[in-house]
């Protein structure tokens, strides 16, 4: 099954000659989404090792390759296998926007395209490995000015329930989170991007340390049949009396991470911290003696 974003992705590759390298494709796709309203954007992006990057788009390319729509070639090239004139299947606004991308950027070299996006959108160059090789001192100063750094020690909590992986990672970057502590019992999710391996890779790619602390998690069967806030409160009261008290060493391990890295986020699934045990982990950490950090929910 092809989703709308798949059709646009295929139409973009087709419009650019049917064979595009991976790094420029991310840039073309990013520029395409800048022509859309925020509500319409088919992909979110993060600052990454070569500039703007969408994990979901990268996953979609792999999925389309498995389905036989395209293939990966040498030097990170991506080639259409089925020429179906995908552009005709899009609405007029999408067709126009793809034509704009082709006309304005289709003849740029990879370095020219990267340079353009770095100059126009410097925030997305803040994690780049290659920016210093492509940019002038003045341009690098503008990129460095976009980097987030805060001196205040801070403990954060964040749930990924209503966020894409890109929105989630970007939020961590914006608040200068340096270590993400995953307090799920089992770091697996049916939502793309939030199983342990993928989440850890995404964090490491933007310079955030990932730590899984399963000892502070709750067994999934205990979360069944939670219908009201009272049900959650009863579960978490029991959690405080049992799991937290029985795993003081794990709690103190998290405390040591906060002391060392200064800006740490506890994460689990639920958007509402009142319906997630991470709020009780945060409460226990805030009650420890000689704390030097404040608590904030992202």
Keywords for this entry:
298 residues; alpha/beta; Cobalt-precorrin-4 Transmethylase, domain 1; 2 domains; 5-stranded parallel beta sheet; 3-stranded antiparallel beta sheet; 10 strands; 13% strand; globular
Describe this entry's structure for a reader.
Helices cover 46% and strands 13% of the residues. α1 packs parallel to α4 (92-105) and α2 packs parallel to α5 (110-120). A five-stranded parallel β-sheet has the order 8-7-9-6-10, sandwiched between helices. A three-stranded antiparallel β-sheet has the order 1-5-4. The two termini are 35 Å apart. The protein folds into two domains: 4-145, no CATH class; 154-297, Cobalt-precorrin-4 Transmethylase, domain 1 (3-Layer(aba) Sandwich), CATH 3.40.1010. The model has no long low-confidence stretch (mean pLDDT 93). The protein has twelve helices and ten strands. It has helices at residues 4-15, 22-34, 55-66, 92-105, 110-120, 131-134, 137-145, 165-174, 196-205, 229-246, 248-261, 278-286; strands at residues 19-21, 46-48, 51-53, 70-72, 77-80, 154-159, 179-182, 209-212, 263-268, 294-297. A hairpin with a 4-residue loop joins β4 and β5 (77-80). It is an alpha/beta fold and 298 residues long.
């Amino acid at each position: 099954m092809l989703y709308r974003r798949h059709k646009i992705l295929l139409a973009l590759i087709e419009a650019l000659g049917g064979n595009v390298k991976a790094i420029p494709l991310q840039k073309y796709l990013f520029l395409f989404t800048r022509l859309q309203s925020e509500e319409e954007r088919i992909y979110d992006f993060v600052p990454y090792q070569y500039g703007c990057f969408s994990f979901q788009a990268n996953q979609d390319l792999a999925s389309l390759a498995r389905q036989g729509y395209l293939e990966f070639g040498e030097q990170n090239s991506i080639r259409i296998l089925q020429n179906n004139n995908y552009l005709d299947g899009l609405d007029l606004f999408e067709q126009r926007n793809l034509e704009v991308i082709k006309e304005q950027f289709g003849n740029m070299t990879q370095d020219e395209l990267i340079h353009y996006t770095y100059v126009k959108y410097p925030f997305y160059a803040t994690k780049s490995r290659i920016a210093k090789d492509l940019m002038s001192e003045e341009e690098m100063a503008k990129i460095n000015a976009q980097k987030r750094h805060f001196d205040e020690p801070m403990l954060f909590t964040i749930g990924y329930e209503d966020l894409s992986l890109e929105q989630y990672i970007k939020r961590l970057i914006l608040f200068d989170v340096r270590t993400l502590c995953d307090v799920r019992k089992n770091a697996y999710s049916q939502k793309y991007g939030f199983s342990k391996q993928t989440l850890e890779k995404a964090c490491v790619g933007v310079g955030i340390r990932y730590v899984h602390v399963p000892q502070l998690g709750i067994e999934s069967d205990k979360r069944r049949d939670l219908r009201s806030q009272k049900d959650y409160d009863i579960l978490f009261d029991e959690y405080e009396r049992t799991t937290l008290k029985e795993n003081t060493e794990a709690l103190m391990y998290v405390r040591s991470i906060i002391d060392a890295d200064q800006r740490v986020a506890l994460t689990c699934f639920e958007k509402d911290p009142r319906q997630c045990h991470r709020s009780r982990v945060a409460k226990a950490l805030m009650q420890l003696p000689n704390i030097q950090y404040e608590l904030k929910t992202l």
